[in-house]
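queue> pop job 88
queue> type: inverse folding (structure -> sequence)
queue> payload:
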């Protein structure tokens, strides 16, 4: 994965870890789509946690890479917040919505990386 995309993914994972996001996964979609390199997906247990995770991801990436998302969608309902960083798109779901849309299955041709939980 290109260095910049990898740095964005790492920043997203730090934010997810900091706010106790659940089941993070990175999908490497290069070769499947030209629009971006990777998706980072996780979920929270309720709308407040979903917002907190998304805010922390933004903060971590801004501090480390001085990059803000090009677009943020879904803030009002916090069932699915998408942070578009161009090369990387981060999806923070609440659990039922993640299960319903099942992006991991939709993009099953992508190489998936599930980082080990911090202890």
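queue> result:
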């Amino acid at each position: 994965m290109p260095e910049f995309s990898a740095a964005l993914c790492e920043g997203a994972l730090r934010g997810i870890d900091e706010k106790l996001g659940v089941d993070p996964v990175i999908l490497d979609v290069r070769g499947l789509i030209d629009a971006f390199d990777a998706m980072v997906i996780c979920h929270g247990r309720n709308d407040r946690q979903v917002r907190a995770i998304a805010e922390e991801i933004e903060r971590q990436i801004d501090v480390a890479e001085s990059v803000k998302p090009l677009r943020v969608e879904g803030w009002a309902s916090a069932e699915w917040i998408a942070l578009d960083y161009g090369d990387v798109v981060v999806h923070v779901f609440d659990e039922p919505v993640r299960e319903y849309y099942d992006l991991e299955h939709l993009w099953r041709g992508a190489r998936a990386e599930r980082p080990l939980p911090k202890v």
